[in-house]
Sequence to fold (641 residues):
Amino acid sequence: MKILVVDNHPVMLKLMKGLLEKEGHEVQTAINGLTALSLLQTHTPDIIFTDLIMPRIDGKKLCEIIRKTPHLQNICIVILSAIAAEDEEKFFEYGANACVAKGPFNRMSKHILQILRRLEQETISMDQVIGLDTVFPHQITKELLSIKKQFDTTLKGMIEGFLEVTPEGDMIYANPAAISIIGQPEEQLLASNFLDLFRQDQRKRVEVVLQCDGGPPKSIPIDFPVKLNGKEVSVQVLPITGGDHRSLILILNDVTERKKMESKLIQAQKMEALGTLAGGIAHDFNNLLMVVQGNVSLILVDMNPSHPHYEMLKSIEKKAQNGSRLTSQLLGYARKGRYEVRPMLLNQLVEETAGAFGRTRKDIVIHMDLYRDLYPLEADSGQIEQVLMNLLVNAADAMPDGGTLFLNTRNVTHQEIESDLYEPVPGDYVLLSVTDTGIGMDQQTMTRIFDPFFTTKELGRGTGLGLASAYGIIKGHNGYINVRSEVGKGATFLLYLPASKGEVEEQAEKSEDILKGSETVLLVDDEEQVLEVGEKILKSLGYEVLTVDSGENGVELYKTNRDQIGLVILDLIMPHKGGRETFDALREIHPEVKVLLSSGYSMNEQTMEIIKRGCKGFIQKPFSIMELSQKLREVLGNPKP
Ligand SMILES: Nc1ncnc2c1ncn2[C@@H]1O[C@H](COP(=O)(O)OP(=O)(O)OP(=O)(O)O)[C@@H](O)[C@H]1O
Ligand SMILES: [Mg+2]
Fold:
């Protein structure tokens, strides 16, 4: 007969081979289940003698696989094992035909030959172990030890913590992962109770899952982990029943990192949603403020300051300006910002802004240490100024009785940016740090300061938008913002902005002049009141005005009046034909058309793209008469004398 012998002990294989070949059989051997299976791909023996406990696929698995493989199904399998006798599981349940207890070889060989003889006559099926009386306890132990070794190796390699505890919670085994999660030396751990590892408020939950009441095993799920040694841990409980002693296997999973990632994701989604909301509100508000501010300024232009309503109108105008400051904070936060991005020098801006600020707060001493060869930035100076102002105002608020402010700039690389929250994009950065000697903050406050509407200031004094918008603006510039602070020890805000290689142009002095003109301006906006006030403002500046309420009508009107129209003021967000499509259609009629985009959003990528394609400029609503008058001359050139 063709026989395959599978056993992880080479001596056993040798003995079996000798025995069977002497009887005239053709014998092959395999050192474990895996080797046996690969042999079985090319050879089909009549009978397999296999050991039960082996590394790399044990005898039981081997049986099961053979019974499920069609061309091997009929092979007769005989188990040779010492522990088969002790195992409650019956060998025939997993497909063996017979089982011989391993004992001294001369006795065992008799049983084997007996079986072979029977096999020559019939197919056998026995549910009794043959030769049990010859099994020696030490052989059982040997086999059991080999199983243990295998489990030990597995448990040591597991990334999950594996703990065995008594029903009372005393720890009796811990694998290395469990020891590291718990963070106590093994000898200390094995003498203690699992429940004692938890804080009082968590203990109850753990106690409940350890209670084995015969029902399905309980667990502490990943979604709702417990705190253990500063980590978030899930616990799966597997009760071991039967046998002499009852115990519980606990599988511990450290889910701290996973939880952190999840909450970061949720936070990011929340920010995104809030940003969209804030941006939308700001946009609509800007249109509304445009109408208020425009009308008030128009009235004020012709009003004598002695008029009884003059001061009231002035105060409305002031409030409208405050409103537009608020919307610009919201837009900053919503990252709808980044308009007029050009190479700029941060030192100059810091000097000017801090200088102006210092004049308003004489009790604050400002120290500036600005690095002379600072890299230029590619940024919107208006927005960076807004960020700096927000930081200065906060610092001043933190020093109600005066103090010192340190403003510091220097060149750094991404490696010097400290954060465990993000991985900075490699490159050169400019660092601006703003340090005050004020009241400082505790850790908990610090985690929330960039949230919109988070403020610790009394009602009416803070809106909680300063840092939220600073954060949005710095992010919008691909930069980073960090904070260091301790209660009573002041605060330091660190701004990192990517360095630029661009050439910095001289900035024209800002003038306060209202510039007039006489050209014809076509005003396109879907909001009637914006059109009305815009028309009045333009007329007051001397321009001829045509107004239309949609992109389609704008294009129609331009077709018939292109020679007369000197400039088009085009709203960006309109239903149907929006600013971009209208711009394209106008350019088809006249490639050199002069278009000034306007929007309640600050400039975004879409606007930038239109500007790159030849649009002449952008003005953000609400704009003042002065701003508009200057923008118009910028695009149209000096007025004809
Ligand atoms: N330099 C600082 N020192 C101490 N606490 C600060 C400092 N800067 C900010 N904070 C804390 O962060 C909170 C949020 O600041 P943020 O600028 O966003 O809003 P705000 O100043 O309260 O209101 P707003 O800026 O809208 O007027 C403040 O209320 C304060 O508790
Ligand atoms: Mg503030």
Notes: The chain has a mean pLDDT of 86. The pocket of magnesium ion (ligand 2) is lined by residues 390, 393-394, 462, 466 (CB under 6 Å). The first strand starts at residue 2 and ends at 6. The radius of gyration is 41 Å.
